[in-house]
Amino acid sequence: MVQAKTWTLVKHFDGFPKDSDFELKVEDLPEPKDGEVLLEAVFFSVDPYMRPFSRVRMKEGDVMIGTQVAKVLQSKNPAFPVGSHVIGRGGWRTHTVSDGADLTPIMPDWPQDLSLSLALGTVGMPGLTALYGIEEVLGLQKGETLLVNAAAGAVGTVVGQIAKIKGCKVVGSAGSDAKVAYLKELGFDEAFNYKTVGSLDEALKKASPEGYDCFFENVGGPFWTAATQQMKNFGRIAVCGGIATYNDTTPKTCPYPHLTMIFKQLKVEGFMQSRWEHKHPESLKRLMGWVKEGKLKYQEHVTKGFENMPAAFMGLLRGENTGKAVIAV
Q: Taking a C-beta distance cutoff of 8 angstroms, is the pair 215, 172 a contact?
């Protein structure tokens, strides 16, 4: 009998997550039945969405939500042969018995020299989020100027690079000088450390005096207020995240942006990549193609050991990662 280690949510987060909010458990798994498979996790993803989604998608005592790359150890489902790898939504658990409904095979012809962890990042959900935000929501056009915040994260790094592929000017904001240097390495035209600039308004004006056609929003809070003021008329904003507000115990209110949005005639749209799930296979091929061509570079923040998942998650929320945060078992 196989035993699975799991991380469960002891109680819903109140403010910033704490070690005591998580509990490591062990459970015995049954043998797979017809149509089922036994999986062993290889890589885990930690993502900012887990913080707000845990409140609406989980009950206290549930296994933490999340995605993993897993290897098929036993199979009674011909769609998932033994030894193959899949993307699974089993959450924070080392082993899973699945009927296959929540599994996606790793894309065919995955290059031998690329880590499968990229299927959780640049050639996975964050990459798809970047691509759809740019193409489906913003409709970014060659020659336009794009602003992206949390630009050194898993989504932001891909956003900036795809915008450059499309022939745009890209301005990125990040939370350390090292991250800003990395953004410049990726080809961002302008980048600044929002923690050290004297004024967000002045930093945004300096980076693009003519304003911004598009804004890929990952943060919320004061940055949102400053950025909307710098949008061009008929600017478009894709609202992907609001990490500055995720740990608030009392919901923030900010200066109401209505007059700015009216006078500038801005278009603002929230989105999740799952809306375009029917496009995923082709979109993943495009992302992988850019990686192979060297047009889409990546960096991973790797934490080793399943026992360190809560620490990796909390580190992500503190902004300790550059690029995608993953856990290697």
A: no
Rounded Cα distance, 262 and 275, in Å: 27
Q: How far is CA 84 from CA 37, 39, 146, 152, 164, in A?
A: 11, 10, 39, 32, 35
| Separation CA 185–CA 46 (nearest Å) | 25
Question: pLDDT tens digit string along 272-318?
Answer: 999 999 999 999 999 999 999 999 999 999 999 999 999 999 999 99
CA distance 67 to 70: 9
Structure confidence by residue, pLDDT tens digits, 216-255: 999 999 999 999 999 999 999 999 999 999 999 888 776 7
* pTM of the predicted model as reported, rounded to 2 decimal places: 0.96
Structure tokens belonging to residue 10: 């002891």
Q: What angle do CA 39, 40, 46 make, to 5 degrees?
A: 110
Beta bridge partners, 23, equal 8
Q: What's the pLDDT at 250?
A: 87
The helix or strand, by DSSP H or E, that contains position 22, with its residue range, turns out to be strand 22-28
Classify each residue of 216-253 as buried b or exposed e, where b means 16 or more C-beta atoms within 10 Å of its C-beta. bbbbbeebbbbbbbbbbeebbbbbbbbbbbbeeeeeee
Whether the CB-CB separation of 191 and 173 falls below 8 Å is answered with yes
> Are 166 and 134 a contacting pair, CB within 8 Å?
yes
